[in-house]
Known about the structure:
Layout: H1 3-68, H2 71-78, H3 83-99, E1 105-109, E2 114-118, E3 129-132, H4 141-149, E4 153-160, E5 165-175, E6 181-190, H5 191-199, E7 206-211, E8 217-219, H6 248-264, E9 271-278, E10 281-290, E11 295-302, H7 303-306, H8 313-353, H9 368-405, H10 416-433, E12 437-444, H11 447-454, H12 456-473, E13 479-484, E14 487-492, H13 497-518, E15 524-531, H14 537-553, E16 558-563, E17 566-571
Parallel strand pairs: 15-16
Antiparallel strand pairs: 1-2, 1-6, 2-3, 4-5, 5-6, 7-8, 7-11, 9-10, 10-11, 12-14, 12-15, 13-14, 16-17
The structure holds guanosine-5'-triphosphate.
Amino acid sequence: MSLKTRILGLAALLIIAAGTASWLAYRALSDDIVERWGQQVAEIQVRYDSARLLQSLEREIGLAQQMARSSALLQWAGAPDNPTLKARAIRQMESFRGNFRDNSYFVALRENGHYYYNNADNEYAGNQFRYVLDPDKPDDAWFFQLLQEGRDFHLNVNPDTELGVTKLWIDVLMRDDNQQVVGMVGTGLNLDDFLQDIVDIGQDGITTLFVDYNGAIQLYRDRNYIDFASIIKPEGQKNTVDLLFDDPQDKQQILGMLQILKRRNGEQGAVESGFVTVNDRKHLAGVAFLPAIGWFEITLLDLDTLIPRSYLWPLVAVFLASLLITLALFHQIIQSRILRPVLSLEEAVHRLRNGRFDLPYLPKPDNEIGRLVDHFEKMSHALRNTTRELEQQVARRTEELQRLARIDALTGLKNRRGLDEVMSEQIQRAEREQTGFGLLWLDIDHFKTINDTLGHQAGDDILCRVALWLKAAVRPYDHPGRWGGDEFVVLLSPCDPATLEQIACRIRTSVEKESQRTGSAITISVGGYFCPPGEDLDTLLRIADQALYEAKRSGRNRVCIHTTTGKEIHPA
Ligand SMILES: Nc1nc2c(ncn2[C@@H]2O[C@H](COP(=O)(O)OP(=O)(O)OP(=O)(O)O)[C@@H](O)[C@H]2O)c(=O)[nH]1
């Protein structure tokens, strides 16, 4: 796996890990914020819903209480059979009917159990007496129960089977001057209208319900849950609020909140809240007690509706986008600051390893890698300089060795190899320019005797001296050399037969004279050949050797020149 893949993989893992940790922290924080926010919203919503209910009811309750205190009604309640009082009371009732919101009323008298009623359509005009309440009839039990309890005011959601209506009834007791209960008055609000106005107001995610002092559901958008005629039902048979919750802990929590609020007994602004599950969805429940009517108001906030999960998608999108941007930036930085310099360095090292000093462009970021590249560049420059110096030294030494390989170590003249090269060049030149050159072959006479009598070292000294005299006797552009042993060769170019002869004689004379001057007289024999263009080396050497042989055979210390026209011997 490449370094780039590893670094980017590691970076992605770190970012995802950091992102996950941030996400979890965010979730915890957002849950906390939502909880706090939800509690505040729940409390506000509870107060708002309570206010809406009370606002609607307070006027009706006030009117009902005013009606209960009406002297016309109270007098009639004391003498229900008195037609004058009855007529006056009914007129009074009818005047109240016009003021009630539902334009309906009821009056029930304790003494004879007569129940009077009229509605918005004035359906029972002149016939307000509807029926006689029967203590043994379950449908009428509410009346007798309220009389028994002696509660001055009561709200009751109840279908009236006689009248065929289901209403939220406002029941207010009538008391005479002695505070004796003489009857009951009130009005009924159409339940469907009331639910629509107060409870089921179409706020998405917000559910409002009202329960009575014992937790029995009184107002709820689903009528099936409403506990009609709660007052006459024994405990245990009521539709209480806990029916809405599946989790026993939620049931306990809600009932616990009702208990707490009961203990606080309508304390101003007292609201309890907590999380519950309704229909498998998390809700925040807010509960408040309404002492004016003795009910609790419960608001359920569906958090998934109010704060849908889809709200989080932009956050996820932002996270993913920032992840991609971060990776791209990271890749760019890694690429320019690490990978590209490292790859260039690797390429440079590869070239250097193959002996190439033409390094590619090496980026130098301002970091450790940049410093490493800088050191590498300096190192490669030093290596290049050292290598060049070594190469130059080797070239110089090779050249010297090559030169030495063509030089005779004893005399300093060209050796046989050197002479071979010069002769080959001259053969080519002669061929090319169609001119001849001269070749002399020299041999010291009786050198063996010199060696034998004076010693080998003395022989060497004589060889060196002969070399010096030879050099002095030829022209600067001629090529004298030692062929081997006591034999010397001189190549003369440019040359002609006369010059060849002249120089050959001069050499022989010079050696003879100079050696005599130094006290160890020696002589040499010289064979010469003027080489015409087109002849090969072997032929030249053979003819020059023959000329030398002729010179020796003729008595030594003489020159024998071969030309194309014949041979000529010059004695001393
Ligand atoms: N001192 C010395 N002697 C050498 C060297 N090379 C060859 N010789 C000797 O030179 C002698 C050459 O003798 P030759 O050329 O064969 O015979 P010569 O005695 O010169 O007689 P001619 O040539 O017939 O006059 C031999 O004795 C070799 O040992 C050398 O480098 N130094």
